[in-house]
């Protein structure tokens, strides 16, 4: 019982001693507090000046379009460039492509072209630092934000960057799209020639087969040989090859029609779901938060300096 009382008294004495030290060395605390606070506020307002953020958002254009799997099967390179995927790739496809767009937005070419649209001078490296891109993997959205000291500049930079990328991507995609249509036409023409050649081969085979068959019947001296109209027998290998060619032809023809009917979709690879708006530009300065952090830091450092000063004073007296 006495031990517990003694512990409480000791704790009370320790706390009283601490308060005594703080009161005794109050000027050390006050001076340190003021210096740290002023330093923190100067750092907040000078090193991190007021700045604004203009935001736009992008999603991959995924609609109810058919023949993705077949197109990816026949032309995988072009399909990938046109953001066309197989059904088993849907989950990761959108996020992967948004990651690519995020990198392309900060490429030297896009930045250089965007700078040409702005009414002020800025270097590529400086513009790259201003632009922040973030892929939200939950909503599968790319968020583009421009941070600068003026709301008008934030809006202008975001819009110039987005317009530049959208126009450039449209031109690139249109080239790939037209090239793909040409490749499909070339392939269809090639298959038509192959089917024609196989059909000729089948015709020759049937004629040859029936000639041989008639000769065999003639040897048998059958009375009804005059009524024989021939046998349309096609070897299974040739028959399967022709069916395969027709299947490929029909698939490619369907793909071509689908591409033509949905040209706008295939060329417009992504949707801008939120355009930058001057009215939406937000003040992203953290003056209040940084000021509070400066106060907290000043208090903590002030207390630490009090005890350091007191320690050295006590040590000096003991000598």
Question: Can you put this structure into words, describing what you see?
Answer:
By secondary structure, the protein is of the alpha+beta class. It has two domains: 1-48 and 286-319, no CATH class; 49-285, Bacterial polysaccharide co-polymerase-like. It has eleven helices and five strands. It has helices at 2-24, 26-47, 68-74, 76-81, 90-105, 108-117, 124-130, 151-219, 236-261, 263-267, 287-318; strands spanning 52-60, 131-136, 141-148, 270-274, 282-283. Strands 1, 2, 3, 4 and 5 form a five-stranded antiparallel sheet that branches. Helix 8 (151-219) runs antiparallel to helix 9 (236-261). It is elongated, with a radius of gyration of 39 Å. Mean pLDDT is 80; it is low at 4-13.
Strand proportion = 5-15%
Helical content (DSSP H or I, runs of 4+)? 55-70%
Number of strands: 5
**Distance separating the two termini:** 40 Å
Weakly predicted, low-confidence segments: 4-13
CATH class of the largest domain, named Alpha Beta
Backbone CA Rg: 39 Å
General shape: elongated
What's the average pLDDT?
80
> H/E element string?
HHEHHHHHEEHHHEEH
Domain unit count: 2
Derived structural class: alpha+beta
**CATH topological fold name of the largest domain:** Bacterial polysaccharide co-polymerase-like
Largest sheet: 5 strands, antiparallel
The assigned CATH architecture of the largest domain is 2-Layer Sandwich
Compute the number of helices.
Answer: 11
């Amino acid at each position: 019982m006495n031990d517990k009382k003694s512990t409480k008294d000791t704790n009370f004495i320790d706390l009283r001693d601490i308060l005594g030290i703080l009161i005794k060395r109050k000027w050390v605390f006050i001076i340190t507090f003021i210096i740290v606070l002023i330093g923190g506020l100067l750092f907040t307002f000078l090193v991190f000046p007021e700045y604004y953020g203009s935001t736009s958002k992008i999603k991959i254009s995924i609609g109810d379009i058919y023949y993705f799997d077949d197109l990816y099967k026949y032309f995988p390179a072009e399909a990938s460039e046109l953001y066309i995927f197989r059904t088993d790739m849907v989950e990761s496809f959108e996020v992967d492509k948004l990651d690519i767009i995020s990198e392309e937005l900060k490429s030297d070419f896009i930045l250089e072209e965007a700078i040409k649209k702005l009414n002020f001078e800025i270097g590529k490296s400086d513009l790259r630092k201003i632009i922040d891109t973030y892929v939200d993997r939950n909503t599968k959205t790319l968020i583009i934000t421009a941070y600068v000291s003026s709301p008008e500049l934030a809006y202008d930079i975001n819009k110039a960057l987005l317009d530049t990328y959208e126009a450039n991507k449209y031109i690139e995609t249109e080239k790939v799209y037209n090239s793909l249509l040409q490749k499909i036409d070339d392939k269809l023409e090639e298959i038509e020639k192959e089917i024609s050649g196989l059909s000729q081969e089948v015709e020759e085979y049937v004629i040859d087969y029936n000639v041989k068959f008639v000769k065999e019947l003639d040897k048998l001296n059958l009375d009804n040989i005059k009524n024989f109209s021939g046998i349309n027998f096609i070897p299974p290998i040739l028959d399967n090859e022709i069916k395969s060619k027709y299947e490929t032809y029909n698939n490619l023809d369907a793909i071509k029609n689908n591409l033509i009917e949905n040209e706008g979709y295939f060329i417009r690879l992504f949707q801008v779901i939120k355009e930058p708006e001057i009215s939406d530009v937000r003040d992203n300065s953290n003056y209040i938060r940084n000021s509070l952090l400066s106060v907290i830091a000043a208090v903590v450092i002030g207390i630490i300096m009090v005890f350091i000063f007191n320690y050295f004073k006590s040590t000096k007296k003991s000598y």
